[in-house]
């Protein structure tokens, strides 16, 4: 596929783009900073500028395409990850402006260019737990895509807004538009640097519902979205199958969620952030776990 990927130079994108390229895709990274990876094409552009987004959707991917003499070939899919990645980086109003306006312009340009598949990054924060004032517990566990999304912070508000925007564009055009409610992205090297304190202090993971997503498995999730057509508008939780702490799931329930309704039985280390929908509709099957590095971490 010919894929336009926004935000590919960020923490998640710099792992997902190489994964997609390993699957044989041609990727154009649209970002404020280029991604230094062999074979990837880069375009510097501002997602909040409608003209720039429409221009890049109707442009060549690289200079080599001039020799083909076939003109602009267009894109088979858009993967939209570009965003201000959380609160407290810039002002709340700027977080909301960039994330909502940027998503509108990217999807608008994509559907007007006739792109049939759009995948965009939503967030675990939409459930209102991650950036809540004080402690906020889920309405029920495990948290699935039907859980209410009523956050209080500007970042999560922008993601809820983006989901509404995407749903409306899908209704208008019939394109496949899939939103990924991505949990806390962990790069492979971070197991050694972060997880020693995570696995023995569950309090540090409460805001993430004790979940995480390995950046490599996020690449797999995007690929599965590219492979499966015809689902219309969908949102999917994206996480690994296990929790990010050493305690068993039953112990975490006793400590944190004793008064929270449990809708199904949960295995020994099963995530509280349900990925059943992604498994059922897309065949998503995470391959990586921090537990693979546990011997290293305990040295």
TrEMBL record:
Question: DNA-binding as a keyword?
Answer: no
The Gene Ontology terms for molecular function here are: uronate dehydrogenase activity
Q: Which residues form the NAD-dependent epimerase/dehydratase domain?
A: 3-201
Q: Which UniProt keywords apply?
A: Oxidoreductase
Keyword Protein biosynthesis, does the record have it?
A: no
Give the top-rank taxon of the lineage listed in the UniProt record for this protein: Bacteria
Recorded hits in Pfam families, A to Z, give: Epimerase
The EC code for this enzyme is 1.1.1.203
Q: Which PANTHER family does the UniProt entry name for this protein?
A: NUCLEOSIDE-DIPHOSPHATE-SUGAR EPIMERASE, PUTATIVE-RELATED
**Under which name does UniProt file this protein?**
Uronate dehydrogenase
Species assigned in the record? Sulfitobacter pontiacus
Q: Which gene encodes it?
A: udh_2
